Amino acid sequence: MAKILKIYPDNPQENLVNEVIKTLKNGGLIIYPSDTIYALGCNIFDIKAMEKLAQIKKVKLEKSKFSIICNDLSHLSDFTRPIDTSVFRFLKSHLPGPFTFILDANKSLPLAYKNHKTIGIRVPDHPIPQLIVEKLGHPIASTSIRDDDEIIEYSTDPELIAEKYDHLVDIVIDSGYGDNVASTIVDLTSGEPEIIRQGKGII
């Protein structure tokens, strides 16, 4: 059964955040809030956790497109090829924020991302995922939680999310109602921004 932890952005309790970190280090899966929607996350360096994430999303791991959640741009060089100064400035002017930026991947990606030519990078404007990444010491893999409802595309109620994913994840972070608009996906591989999916972020 998933454990529900009430962690609020204005005053996140350190002991609860530490419990999340311990779970991630032990290969667990979490559901966490962001500046857009609630999302599933795990340790990008734990291949078994990544496989579980792929199973939940009903995709093959090698074909998955899980975003990498960072707390700032300092991890860019760990996952992406060198980028132009103009692209870096563009990123810096839009992050943190509700965007997923597609960049050319380097050859040092974690095992689960092997052979991926591009990678999606997110820096959410939300203290909880930022704090998780900071305390964990490296980014996490992430994918959005979709709703089965035909009208509402994304789940917003953490209690309903916890019920649905009760036996699939280890921790659900309840931070109040989430948004139901996903991030804007922007492809920067050509050097010029190309919007792949219009979401919450406005370029």
TrEMBL record:
Domain YrdC-like: 14-201
GO molecular function, one term: double-stranded RNA binding
A family per Pfam: Sua5_yciO_yrdC
Protein known as: tRNA threonylcarbamoyl adenosine modification protein, Sua5/YciO/YrdC/YwlC family
Gene3D superfamilies: DHBP synthase
